[in-house]
Amino acid sequence: MRIAVLSDIHGNLDAFQEVLQDMDRFRVDQVICLGDMIGYGPEPEETIRLIQERTIPCVMGNHEMAVVKPQLQAWFNPQARESIQKTQTLLSAKTLLYIHGLPNSRITDEFRFVHGCPPNSPFIYLYQLPEIRLMEILQKSAEWIIFVGHTHNLKLIRFDGQSIIQTPLRQGISVLSDQDRYIVNAGSVGQPRDGNNTAKYVIVDTQANSLEVRFVPYDIAAVCRKIMEAGFPKSHAERLW
């Protein structure tokens, strides 16, 4: 089985469309989204419509949660808060209803999917946890791989039964052990922060015990123009480069 996992689209429809085209070449069996479909980017409504058209299961991200519970917007920095408030004006009633129905996590076969931190937090960042806590999470996990997003940075955390090994994920294929437990940060489609401005997503192959990281180029300049025209903070456009 081949499962494509993507995260943090952030209203960047152009990047999302390019990722879907790339994904379609690999005949994946399932696609899962790890949340933060909205926020920062100029086309949140169109992004969620496409998620729904493709029937892609998704979990609640912190940006979706801030729409569901506006009191949580105080958690965000001023520019992110401005972005969320602008995003709310671009969402239809139907889309808002969809967002309210998102679960905090999903489990499919050998995998758990959550935006921030397992088992079900949209807000906690993995880097906030000491290794002993990561070890406890993976010791208790019934799933082979836990997929997360939130940081916009690709990362692989492996637990071999005794210790935690943390490594950056690189473009290409990594072989996984079915004897170990993993947390995989799938990076970001719409706003990567790992020093490479292409859209990122991953494909896990359960037969080959492999994880492939895909880098997908898109028209960044066009998205920057849309961000400015939509009235979002200029920093959201500059950050894409």
Regions with pLDDT < 50 over 5+ consecutive residues? none
CATH topology: Purple Acid Phosphatase, chain A, domain 2
Termini, distance in Å? 34 Å
Biggest β-sheet description: 6 strands, mixed
CATH superfamily descriptor:
Metallo-dependent phosphatases
Task: Tell me what you see in this structure.
The chain has 241 residues and is α/β, with parallel strands linked by helices. It has one domain (2-238): Purple Acid Phosphatase, chain A, domain 2. The protein is 31% helix and 23% strand. The strands form 2 sheets. It has a 6-stranded mixed sheet. The chain has a 5-stranded mixed sheet with strand order 2-1-10-11-8. Strand 3 and strand 4 form a beta hairpin.
